[in-house]
Specification:
This protein is an alpha/beta fold. The protein has 18 helices and 12 strands. Strand 5 and strand 6 form a beta hairpin. It is globular.
Length: 452
């Protein structure tokens, strides 16, 4: 997800803490939704009392507290003293630390592009090919996770350098169940049905969609999520991969087609609250509010899992508002169920026995279930008990991950910053303003070609 623009640039604020093994949130052996057997099995043969493990990651505030609650079990099982730290500008900090030769044992990052750069410069240690088979066997859409974990080292050889842990889902469409019930609408299962519903809402005198691209200096990014979702639903995953790496140009018919598919929804005055002209000027934080007016100003809103933060106060997800998976095309059945999202990847920056044991811990169901039972954690790990999810909405998003046949990270986050967080954003604003998809694509590609 596009966190950088929301976090802004701040002075270095390094926080460090050691999880306390005594503070276990859930007592081992109690509550059958947890796979305590996996915890007990992990404890055998992993006695590393006196060892220290340093982990650097993106989580601060509540997320740091949640992660440390998981680390407490790792400490309890192994005797390892874990020191976790973060920084508001962690992306720059990890580069500084690795270049200075003083990296943590493990870094956890949400940017595959940054990981690829660190790997190519020889700053990462391969995790071992056995992890490839483990991901194939244990993660839904296993090949996707292998792909996201594979990078080229300084020698140019590809190897497994990362382990995916804590995932976010973007391929969601939000709606108000009561509005659907009153109008007699059903959740669409295919893109063709979603388009038919869009047209039916108009025929019934309503407005189908709320869409807002406004986000200050980052205006335009919500449209890139639309295009990425539609690329995955109209093209094979390898085409998507070649697009985000510039092997396939923005001017390719496949990309222009995805942009125009977005335009089918966003450039029709009847389809969008406020008309097409309002799309670029409506702030993304305000855009879902039309779902909750009476009568509703719109019935549908495409956005990632974080958007309930901007719903009216007191809104209960799963009751007052709900979501469904952005459906695939019936006519493109061979593409399966692609999911667009984001997440974090653990990498080995300074090898040690304690670090290797931590990666073993991430392969246990309990390492996932303990966070699932709290908040803000989704996993494609088939071995984790779905019943451990803290609430129905999290479980439903977990089901989307488990049903995925393909998973891909947000494409604009994988592109060079001046494209994915620049020309692509502004190009989509121009497109919703009336510029043709061809002209927009040519402009973005010209910017990419001009990079040094």
């Amino acid at each position: 997800m596009k966190k950088a623009f929301m976090l802004g640039v701040a002075a270095l604020a390094l926080t460090a803490a050691s999880a306390l093994a005594a503070d276990l949130k859930f007592k081992p052996g109690e509550d059958s939704k947890f796979n305590w057997a996996s915890f007990e099995e992990f404890k055998k043969g992993h006695d590393l009392k006196g060892e220290t493990l340093t982990i650097f990651g993106p989580w601060r505030g509540e997320d740091q507290t949640l992660f440390e609650s998981i680390l407490a079990y790792f400490e309890d099982a192994t005797g390892i003293d874990v020191k976790y730290s973060s920084s508001e500008n962690y992306e720059q900090q990890i580069v500084i630390d690795t270049q200075a030769g003083s990296p943590p044992n493990i870094a956890i990052l949400p940017q595959p592009g940054l990981i690829a750069d660190l790997s190519s410069k020889g700053y990462l240690v391969p995790l071992g090919e056995e992890n490839k088979q483990w991901l194939l066997d244990n993660y839904a859409a296993g090949q996707s996770w292998v792909d996201l974990s594979t990078y080229k080292g300084k020698d140019g050889k590809a190897a497994i350098y990362a382990f995916p842990y804590k995932i976010d889902v973007k391929s969601l469409v939000w709606y108000v169940p009561e509005n659907f019930e009153d109008a007699g609408y059903e959740v669409p299962k295919t893109m063709e049905e979603l388009k038919a519903l869009t047209e039916k809402i108009v025929a019934d005198g309503g407005t189908p969609w709320c869409i807002g691209l406004g986000s200050g200096g980052a205006t335009g990014w919500p449209a890139t999520d639309w295009v990425e979702d539609l690329m995955l639903r109209t093209q094979p995953a390898d085409v998507y991969d070649k697009w985000v790496s510039n092997e396939i140009k923005f001017t390719d018919p496949a990309v222009i087609g995805a942009i125009e598919e977005f335009g089918w929804f966003a450039r029709n005055d009847k389809f969008v609250d406020g008309g097409a002209a309002a799309v670029a000027s409506t702030d993304f934080r305000d855009s879902p509010k039309g779902l909750f007016t009476s009568p509703p100003k719109c019935y549908l809103h495409h956005q990632a899992s974080f958007i309930p933060s901007f719903f009216p106060e007191g809104t209960v997800v799963g009751e007052d508002a709900d979501f469904f998976y952005m459906p695939p095309y019936e006519s493109k059945k061979d593409l399966g169920n692609p999911v667009l999202g984001a997440g974090t990847l653990a990498i080995l920056t300074k090898d040690s026995p304690a670090a290797r044991v931590f990666f073993d811990f991430l392969k246990t169901p309990i390492a996932h279930e303990l966070w699932m039972a709290q908040s803000s954690f989704l996993t494609p790990f088939k071995g984790a008990n779905k019943a451990a999810y803290a609430n129905a909405p999290m479980s439903k998003q977990g089901d989307i991950l488990l049903s995925a046949t393909t998973f891909r990270f947000d494409g604009s986050d994988l592109m060079p910053g001046k494209i994915g967080a620049g020309a692509f954003w502004t190009g989509m604003v121009d497109y919703t303003g009336g510029k043709s998809a061809q002209d927009v694509a040519e402009g973005i590609q010209k910017a990419w070609d001009g990079l040094k």
